[in-house]
């Protein structure tokens, strides 16, 4: 008996294409099975690679779409130089009209926190599954020039929290991680408490089960450094005096982060 035909590749609608540093910024929309709504993502593809391109995922912070990073960070210069593709997803489901989803800027739309919500009301907020499972498959199915099994992840603020937690739960899937000003201990800060109590319920032990215990208890800059030393985990912790939380700060140090990831992505 003949083997069953593989399922068709997820349909992608290309929204834009702009040349930059010899490569292209591309923006796509597709129907997300994880989130139950259309999702957009941006992709920077460096110029015609000799071999398949490794993938560096960027997770943005509160209020962002997939476009903030692509427009403001200037990351494409270093990505083109190192031959690394950049993938930036949106930060939450949109257009579902869940009651209250846009009442505040730090919860709901634009604030997916890269977790899988367990509260029925927010059941579509499954950004963890979207980033870890669905998006890599969409890329694999649609871009033969990408080597999606060679991937790293980084992000900013809420996206820094997402990058760190996703990496620590999936060290087999990502070669390296970095974060700009991450929400490092969400269980103990107002942004995290608001998100977790609504997405995951008010039982704090449930939050810890959903979060990485190491992160929740130790990821306060200095403490995190000590913990990494104790665990023998390599860490470069850089404090940058005088910089704020904006993309001006990110743009200043983005080249360093991409060079860091390129070392791991290009080491075979
Ligand atoms: N609207 C808020 C500010 C929101 C903000 O600063 N968002 C950051 C991420 S914060 C943590 O996740 C961001 O990246 N914004 C997008 C941008 O392009 O700067 C306010 O009014 O204070």
TrEMBL record:
Pfam families named among the record's database cross-references: Esterase
GO MF term list: carboxylic ester hydrolase activity; S-formylglutathione hydrolase activity
Main enzyme class: hydrolase
GO biological process: formaldehyde catabolic process
EC number: 3.1.2.12
SUPFAM superfamilies from the UniProt entry: alpha/beta-Hydrolases (SSF53474)
Keyword terms: Hydrolase, Serine esterase
InterPro entries: AB_hydrolase_fold, Esterase-like, S-formylglutathione_hydrol
The keyword Lipid biosynthesis belongs to this UniProt entry's keyword annotation: no
Cellular component terms (Gene Ontology): cytosol
Active site: 157 (charge relay system), 212 (charge relay system), 245 (charge relay system)
Family note: Belongs to the esterase D family.
Protein name as annotated: S-formylglutathione hydrolase
Origin species: Triticum turgidum subsp. durum
